[in-house]
Design a protein that fits this description.
Elements: H1 12-15, E1 26-33, H2 43-49, H3 70-74, E2 80-81, H4 82-90, H5 92-101, H6 108-122, E3 125-132, H7 135-156, E4 158-168, E5 171-181, E6 194-201, H8 209-230, H9 236-242, H10 253-261, H11 269-280, E7 289-296, E8 302-309, H12 312-326, H13 353-358
Parallel strand pairs: 1-3, 2-5, 6-7
Antiparallel strand pairs: 4-5, 5-6, 7-8
Helix pairs in contact: 4-5, 4-8, 7-11
Length: 359
Amino acid sequence: MADQQPVEIISEEEMAFLEAALASARPRISAYFSSSSSSPRRLCSAVANASHLPPPKAPDIEELLPRKSLIGQFRKNRGLTVTDITSAEWCEKQKEFELLKGKPKRTRAMQAGSDRHAQLEREVIERVEIRVKSKEESWALKFINFIIGANQLLFEGLTRELQVVGIIEGIWVVGIIDEIRIKKDENSNSINPILVDTKTRVKPTIPTEAQKRNARLQLMCYKYLWDNLIMNQFHSDEFFKYFNLDSEYILSDVVKEQINSLGFQAKTFGDVLTYFRDTLSIIPQSKEELILRYELQSDNSLLEEYTFSYDEIWFKNQIRQCLDFWNGKKEANFVAQEERWKCQFCKFSSICPKINTSQ
């Protein structure tokens, strides 16, 4: 099998974007946890039953008093996802309910957005499924996937669904960048890539400022993670310790065969990480400008595309507020009065004290 690529393995929200099957470009390897008693399953259900990745058990609301770190309760040895950050920015109280009560059922609009991301991914990526036996092998495929995606970006000017990982304000964060492109400009020799995110909308309307603000935070997270990887800020020892990984773990024959077929001679997880770090040394930082695209779900027509600049001060302020919530340093905030319209779409509105006390 020629030119294979791995797939990202992270949270359920972001894994929804990776539901595509075979496509027309480079293959990308997707991981399954092997099971001796049953046939391979789709990643989400397999991860939920993997012994080394137990699902977080939702405590009673009383167990949060005195306040505990939500990271310690729900994201221990996993890190936050960029979705964890943006969902808290949208409404901390809603995120708290989600952690304690469980996620609401996905809506048709949410599924349509995931389907569109899968469609965009299929335009440039082919996925190849492979079973893995450990967290080390899962991460090995993620790093190989990054390497192949980075090379695709440099040689073809475009890649999609590329996972990044790093530390933001002392907290490990993982995310999947929707799209990275390098503009061909005759008047400039710049090869700095631009990060792009595509959102879908049910109605042909321009998003509110609150929606755009949330999306800006998402893209700024991606830029921060990307640029810090490039600037050699990937802390291997801390990474192994936090995610409880063994750098000397010997990869299974199946995984080694797939990796070797891509031109990488790797026997251990640490060998793969060496290739990953080498790749970081040859790719450039991203541009300060970031692009948000909004499409109509019914026909994928473009509603709006706008460019904005990375704002480090604003980004750090937003992140610190979010991490105060995740670290249990403050109670979950309700949405601001001018953004109470969000409550109309919240699945937890019937039990929200803010809603009940205002009626």
